[in-house]
Specification:
CATH superfamily of the largest domain in chain B: [2Fe-2S]-binding domain
Strand order of the largest sheet of chain B: 2-1-5-3-4
Strand content of chain A: 15-25%
CATH architecture of the largest domain in chain B: Orthogonal Bundle
CATH topology of the largest domain in chain B: DNA polymerase, domain 1
Helix content of chain A: 25-40%
Largest interface: A-B, 59 and 53 residues
Strand content of chain B: 5-15%
Structural class of chain A: alpha+beta
Radius of gyration of chain B: 15 Å
Number of helices of chain B: 5
Number of strands of chain A: 24
Strand order of the largest sheet of chain A: 9-10-7-17-14-15-16
Number of domains of chain B: 2
Bound molecules: FE2/S2 (inorganic) cluster
CATH class of the largest domain in chain B: Mainly Alpha
Distance between the termini of chain A: 59 Å
Largest sheet of chain B: 5 strands, mixed
CATH topology of the largest domain in chain A: Aldehyde Oxidoreductase, domain 4
Number of domains of chain A: 3
Oligomer: heterodimer
Shape of chain B: globular
Radius of gyration of chain A: 27 Å
CATH class of the largest domain in chain A: Alpha Beta
CATH architecture of the largest domain in chain A: 2-Layer Sandwich
Structural class of chain B: alpha+beta
Shape of chain A: globular
CATH superfamily of the largest domain in chain A: Aldehyde oxidase/xanthine dehydrogenase, molybdopterin binding domain
Largest sheet of chain A: 7 strands, mixed
Chain lengths: 703, 158
């Protein structure tokens, strides 16, 4: 395997950047990554244990905090294991070498004679001593060599192959979340979020608000309003009261229907990739357009944070994806040096992208700035979560495929029209925090440039189909004037783009009278993808037979970002009152899987979430804000709607790890859309595929 | 008046402030310090605050604290000292969860089912859990785990 130096190692080249030895002779490793609910911490601990030769329970991992760990950027894009884990591996390999050579000189033998396993130094099969005895001699100032010799794949995973999630039991029965933090003298804050972040406060009876039960203080700064109270309940109730009693000047420029607005744009597309002349050959083109609305992150726990100011220094506990970026953004808002702010990651509810965590952190910091030395906890209400948190971007994609006489696809042309998929803290050099817009010293967000192509692109992610289709061109048109707040949500544009492309491929296979899977296999780019699709084919034969009239099957496949994990999904659906997904079979390849079961868990979660998006989810708006007040207004998939899942992982221990968390969103959505098409004979092109959408589509097809 | 109302939480008797209109969720979290019971919506629509009251799964955000006077309440903390409970064991075995925010509520909902010793099919279990949302998509493993727990307790119980 080629030993590329991962970026975090270039920035943090010293051993001491990645680990320390406690006075009790315990090893603590540092990672700039965070646990988002995906099992990152467990996977990273497994990598360390495996590389060093020590039981995972004997070591610990400190995840991102600005005063301690490397800055590894955002924990996003399924890159934790790919980059973060590989850096740690190099650091651990260096540590291992040092331990072995210190031990060798202590024993007066050659280091090559020694081995390290279960935290013990072993010489020719017999135990010498525990590594604890030499840990104080580790030189933490030494550099991690760029070619640090990590274990060969064949030496890996002799032990610690499947360990249980280290954090699961506490999450089941305890209180490990930032929501659960409690400290002596803590106050509870709640922001009063207006309908839109650009709304302006007109009237609010501050005196009456300050007399609400439990309220200690009302904080007003420009159009930012928040309360400090003696309990979370009183804070939430007072904020709700204030929201109902206050008046706000709403923004101009309502946009009633985001998708029609996107479709009506006529400004130029920008070509984001082009691998040849798509118009080289004349001939027939087929096309398909699919749109998806704004959708919510919809974490079950709302955004939360704790903040404390003391002697002009701010400490924030947050479930943000990027503690360093949040620190810098907060420094921008408070116009203070970054060094004055410490941001510490603490577990939050499931994170699927840029949610309200950073915004809640600013809310807590603003409120805490009014009460020196007192920690303030902010937990957003469900209302806040549905009105103030960034949403997954609305978008529309049109794909066209050029066919030769034999029905092969010989060119592919994609046009993506979308709201930008990222407005993370710091994007475009502005804080991009919600309440930063509301305060008097307002900091408006810069126009988002979307996610650059080097990071897999935003709106255009996976617009390039994962097949050999000849020249491909991708054009994108960003639309900035929608009044809603959007940012990164699991897989960004890939979800919609894969649905369109895979839908178009299906339409063509159908026209050719070919089996959709066989048609895809014909266009495979390499053996790896071919093996995946052949496996899916062989695993699903029985599910294609004896279908009733209301039933259908469909597949979806993509290699995430074109270079990451491969995932192919097959589903069976029954279309009756609405769509029911009966069965799902998926085959994935994520290269080396650190925790195979953890990977499967992620893939299954992605599939279920994607089914929910595809069949149910659309944020309703009134042109200015969302009109969703509770889960009743925004149904998501329920237990009784969960299909049976068969999740197959092709393990490739000799390949590099590719990341897993986002790879199934697009393929699962595509498989569902294609299965509905198979069952109904018509294709729904405006997601989600609800009962109403099906009726509308059937009616318009009859005309 | 204070101190006259009492309830039993995880086997311990607690006094209830009788003037309070406080939802049980906040009483448990903030006054008793049992914070596995989670705030998800405060609107009775997500199930993350589910506890067991006299054997029935109830959303604690929708329950007024003084109404539980004289009743017996269980929260997910009951499992803290009972890692051998079939539900805990099988949730761990199936690694049934991702972020875990929904899990205490789901554990309580499924414990109330299990305690009733009814024979439920997978679909019936699923339907009984429909009030509990999970956004991470861990449903399938959760159902596997509950089915297994049923199996273990049936073997033990009869
Ligand atoms: S918090 Fe009680 S149902 Fe959501
Ligand atoms: S495991 Fe995250 S919400 Fe269920």
């Amino acid at each position: 395997m080629k030993n590329q130096v991962p970026k975090p190692l270039l920035d943090y080249p010293k051993l001491g950047d990645w680990l320390k030895v406690t006075p009790e002779k315990k090893l603590v490793f540092f990672s700039g990554r965070v646990e988002l609910g995906q099992g990152n911490v467990t996977a990273l601990l497994m990598m360390i244990s495996d590389e060093l030769g020590i039981e995972p329970e004997k070591i610990s991992l400190q995840t991102a905090r600005t005063d301690m760990t490397p800055n590894e950027g955002f924990t996003a894009g399924s890159m934790s294991i790919v980059h973060g884990g590989q850096s740690l591996r190099s650091a651990v390999a260096t540590l291992r070498q040092q331990i072995l050579s210190i031990s060798a000189s202590r024993l007066g033998v050659d280091a090559l004679e020694l081995d390290l396993s279960n935290g013990q130094i072993i010489q020719k099969g017999s135990f010498c001593f525990y590594i604890d005895e030499v840990l104080d001699q580790i030189d933490l100032s030494s550099e991690i060599p760029s070619g640090a010799k990590i274990k060969e794949p064949s030496q890996r995973w002799v032990q610690f192959r499947e360990i249980d999630r280290v954090d699961l039991l506490e999450k089941m029965t305890g209180a490990p979340f930032v929501h659960d933090m409690i400290e002596e003298g803590m106050l509870f804050g709640a922001p009063v979020h207006p309908a839109n972040m650009y709304s302006k406060l007109l009237t609010l009876d501050v005196i009456a608000l300050s007399k609400r039960p439990g309220v200690i203080k009302v904080v007003q700064d420009g159009s930012f309003v928040g309360v400090l109270a003696t309990s979370q309940r009183f804070a939430l109730e007072a904020a709700e009261w204030a929201r109902e009693k206050s008046e706000w000047k709403e923004i101009d420029g309502k946009i009633e229907n985001p998708i029609s607005h996107l479709m009506a744009q006529s400004h130029d597309f920008e070509i984001v990739s082009e691998t040849g002349d798509v118009n080289k050959n004349s001939g027939e083109w087929c096309e398909l357009t699919v749109s998806r609305p704004y959708i919510f992150h919809g974490s079950i726990g709302p955004a939360a944070a704790v903040a404390k100011w003391e002697n002009e220094k701010l400490t924030v506990w947050t479930h943000s994806q990027g503690v360093f970026q949040l620190r810098d953004a907060l420094a921008g808002v408070f116009e203070t040096a970054e060094d004055n702010i410490t941001v510490i990651h603490k577990a939050g509810s499931g994170c699927y992208g840029h949610n309200g965590a950073d915004d809640a952190a600013l809310d807590a910091a603003i409120l805490a700035s009014e009460v020196e030395g007192i920690p303030v906890k902010v937990v957003w209400s469900r209302y806040d979560e549905f009105h103030a948190a960034p949403m997954g971007a609305a978008m529309s994609t049109k794909s066209r495929a050029h066919l030769d006489q034999d029905g092969y696809i010989t060119a592919f042309d994609v046009e993506v029209t979308s709201v930008p998929h990222s407005s993370r803290p710091g994007t475009g050099g502005t804080p991009n925090l919600r309440s930063a817009v509301l305060i008097k010293n307002s900091k408006l967000p810069a126009k988002s440039p979307d996610v650059p192509a080097v990071r897999g692109g935003g709106a255009e992610r996976n617009a390039v189909p994962s097949y050999n289709f000849g020249p491909v061109r991708v054009k994108k048109r960003l639309v900035h004037d929608l009044p809603f707040r959007a940012s990164a949500l699991r897989s960004l544009g890939a979800y919609n783009n894969v649905i369109v492309n895979e839908g178009l491929i299906d339409e063509i296979a159908h026209r050719n009278g070919e089996d959709p899977l066989a048609f895809r296999i014909k266009h495979c780019v390499d053996d790896r993808s071919k093996e995946l699709l052949l496996r899916l084919d062989s695993e699903t034969k029985k599910y294609k037979e004896n279908l009733k009239e209301s039933q259908g099957w469909g597949v979806g496949y993509a290699r995430y970002k074109g270079v990451s994990g491969l995932c192919a999904v097959f589903v069976n659906v029954t279309v009756d009152e609405g769509v029911v997904v009966d069965n799902v079979v998926s085959v994935s390849d994520v290269g080396e899987a650190i925790s195979p079961d953890g990977v499967k868990n992620q893939i299954e979660g992605g599939i279920v979430q994607s089914i929910s998006w595809t069949l149910k989810e659309a944020v309703k708006t009134d042109g200015v804000s969302t009109t969703v007040d509770s889960w009743f207004d925004y149904p998501i998939i329920k237990f009784s709607e969960i299909p049976s899942l068969n999740t197959i992982l092709i393990e490739r221990p000799f390949e590099k790890p590719l990341g897993a968390a986002e790879i199934s969103q697009g393929p699962a959505g595509a498989a569902v859309a294609n299965a509905v098409r198979h069952a109904l004979g018509v294709r729904i092109t405006e997601l989600p595929i609800t009962r109403e959408a099906i009726i509308t589509s059937l009616l318009s097809n009859e005309i | 008046m204070q101190g006259e109302l009492r309830c039993t939480i995880n086997g311990v008797v607690h006094a209830i402030d009788s003037f309070s209109s406080e939802p049980l969720l906040f009483f448990l979290r903030d006054k008793i310090g049992l914070r596995s019971t989670r705030y998800g919506c405060g609107q009775g629509t997500c199930g993350s605050c589910t506890v067991i009251i006299d054997g029935e799964a109830k959303m604690s955000c929708e329950t007024i604290t003084k109404d539980v006077s004289g009743k017996t309440i269980e929260t997910a903390e009951v499992f803290e000292n009972d890692c051998e409970h079939p539900l805990v064991k099988s949730f761990i075995e199936f690694q049934a969860g991702q972020c875990g925010y929904c899990l205490p509520g789901i554990l309580m909902a499924s414990k109330s089912l299990l305690d009733k010793k009814q024979n439920l099919s997978r679909l019936e279990i699923a339907e009984a859990l429909d009030a509990n949302l999970c956004r991470c998509g861990a449903h399938s493993r959760i159902l596997d785990a509950i089915e297994k727990a049923y199996q273990i307790s049936n073997e033990k119980g009869t």
